[in-house]
Amino acid sequence: MSTALEVPVARTGEPTTRAPGFLADTWNVMLRELRPVWREPVSVLFAMVQPLVFLALFAPLLPAVAGGSALQWFVPGIVAMTALMGASFTGSNLTAEIQSGSHERLLVSPLSRSALLVGRALKEVVPLLMQTAIILLVVTPFSYELHLPGVLLGLVVLAGFSVGVGALSFALALASKDQDWLFWTVQQTAIFPLLLLAGVLLPLEGAPGWLRFLADLNPLAYVVDAVRTLFAGSFDAGVVAPGFAASALVAALGLVVGLRAMNRST
Amino acid sequence: MTQNQTRPSGGPVIRTRALTRHFTRHKRTVEAVRALDLEVGAGELVAFLGPNGAGKSTTLRMLTTLLPPTSGSAEVAGFDVVTQRRDVRRSIGYVGQGNAAAHAQRGRDELVCQGRAFGLSRARARERASELLHDFDLTEQADRPVSTLSGGQRRRLDVAIGLVHAPPLMFLDEPSTGLDPQNRVNLQEQVLRLHREHGTTVVLTTHYLEEADSIADRVIVIDHGSVIADDTAARLKAGLGDLVSLGFDSPDAAATAADRAARLPGADVTLRDSEVQVRVAHGRALVPGLVVDLAGSGAPVTRLEVVGPTLDDVFLDLTGRSLRDAAGEPTSAPEGAAA
Fold first, then answer.
1. I need a surface site. Which of A28, A37, A236, B6 has the fewest CB within 10 A?
2. How far apart, in Å, do the first and last CA atoms of chain A sit?
3. In this predicted model, what pLDDT tens digit does every residue of B212-254 receive, in sequence order?
4. Which residues lie below 8 Å from residue A88, measured CB to CB, with a gap of 6+?
């Protein structure tokens, strides 16, 4: 297959194949991200330590609320907390890849930058599903009432949120390229205000006005409200619709910020 | 692998025009690469040699689309590194300074992922992964987390990943840095084999003199962002001359020999007791004739040593600095040939 070269063209020994498109690249990146999870499923428990601690040590302290057990109120918040923990952590994998050099190899490969970000962010849905399943399995024996259709719709809301937070986490990892303390500082600093201002641990009903105002700005608050309603088997559009909107907003924001960061990555 | 067996006599696969890269650090502009004009032909094995910070890696990062040039242009495999980045990436293999495989992944998985990125079918990607794992003697480590592999095994995996799509052009950024001597030699042999058996064009950076000297067809010496020398290692050194030391039975014989040696063109002769030192270009080629000549002139040679110049001597000659000092890297003893 030696040809007289007029133009210095690539002489690839492999049979020429179609260049994979964006979807194929995204799928490839997502599978790559999932492989360590697949090989070592225990790793999804890592982001669950704190939520499970709260479930075991905090939930029993909650007073029974009107219209159901405290657990019924608390579990959806803990599922949302797990989603936030897992997705905000996920950039640390990229931090490790930036340091070791494998990120650089992917940048020099024909994979599109967008696929490198989107494939990673979409992968967040899988640990979300696994972690939710574990939490529900743990609490169901404790007279937790499971409303499956609502749970499934609630997971859709959480999936959008997780993808968005995951993308933001990757953007943060890329921004922390030469200073990895930055990643952990920002991630740790952001998490608890977001959780508290979403009424995950304690209800916001009795909160002072300024705190309620801050909570109104927190997209996670809408997500948690929607997930609570759905997990309780209600489909009240007045609560569910804002939850979907907040989830979509976080996903869109995350992808825009993440794509900008990834496209600039060198 | 169905690869090209014949060494192509093609045009340049790399062509840069006034390729320049500046960095701004602490409000100061650093010219990492200055107006580089370079051509690399298909099938060449080129080493960029220079101290740390000379601009070797920056040049490589521009050629592999990792870093946009500040000004100037470069074509790699016929594609522009700024406007046709994806085409460049499809045409090249790259082994960076770090590890290609993520430490949480397994080697085989990373090879398959890389194959899929280059458009191989799933079956072909798996097959290719097995071939490369076998070629690089990594089959046993293929299904273990990369974090458990030794440094040498990881480096072999890096090269294997770079070769998944059998690229006609391969870039290696300091491939042997940090490897022990045995692994370094193994890696060099692999690069040479790739070059010889498949006609792959190879561009590597190194600050190991011996590496550039022993494997590269062409050595491009870079200092302060500019090319200061560009030739085969042999020709770069030839200009400096070999140091020929001759021993004799008596000072008289040595004096006779010094007279005769001084007739060699360009020879620089030193006489000390019964020993003569001659610094002369192509000394190795001239010595046999000189020995015969001296035997006929009543000054038979009793001891003989020829020491060739090293690339360090070349760097020293060009810059007034030693590459060893500039690189801050310990290297082994200078090349010598004793007879």
1. B6
2. 35
3. 888 899 999 999 999 998 998 888 887 778 889 999 999 999 9
4. A165, A166, A168, A169, A187, A190, A191
Measured between CB atoms, does A25 come within 8 Å of chain B? yes
| Cβ-defined contact of A28 to B94 (cutoff 8 Å) | no
pLDDT exceeds 50 at position A3: no
Asked if B107 has any chain A CB less than 8 Å from its own CB, the reply is: no
- Provide the pLDDT for residue A15: 43
Which phi and psi angles does B195 have, rounded to 5°? -70, -45
Pairing of strands B201-206, B226-231: unpaired
Q: What is the ipTM of this complex?
A: 0.85
Nearest Cβ partner for B4 among A11, A99, A111: A11
Select from B76, B114, B126 the residue whose CB has the most chain A CBs within 10 Å, as the one to mutate to test that interface.
B114
3-state secondary structure of A70: helix
Using alpha carbons, select from B59, B62, B33, B35 the residue that is nearest to residue B46: B59
Q: Is residue A104 within 8 angstroms of chain B, CB to CB?
A: yes
Q: How many CB atoms lie within 10 A of CB B328?
A: 9
Q: Is B4 helix (H, G, I), strand (E, B) or coil?
A: coil
**Cβ–Cβ contacts within 10 Å for residue B101, how many?**
29
Residue B125 CA, distance from chain mean position: 31
Given the DSSP bridges, would you call strands B218-223 and B45-49 parallel, antiparallel or unpaired?
A: parallel
B65 to chain A, any CB pair closer than 8 A? The answer is: yes
Tens-digit pLDDT profile for residues B126-178 = 999 999 999 899 999 999 999 999 988 999 999 999 999 999 999 999 988 87
Instruction: Please tell me whether residue B242 adopts helix, strand or coil conformation.
Output: strand
**How far is the C-alpha of B319 from the C-alpha of A95, rounded, in Å?**
40
Closest to B204 measured CA to CA, from B64, B3, B317, B12 = B64
- Whole-number pLDDT of residue B184: 87
Beta bridge partners of B206: B49
Is residue B329 within 8 A of residue B207, CB to CB? The reply is: yes
Judged by CB atoms closer than 8 Å, whether chains meet at A108 and B113 is answered as no
Q: Which residues of A touch B92 (CB under 8 A)?
A: 108
Q: How far does A114 lie from chain B, in Å, by closest CA?
A: 13
Mean pLDDT of chain A: 87
- Please check whether residue B140 is in contact with residue B71, taking contact to mean a CB–CB distance below 8 angstroms: no
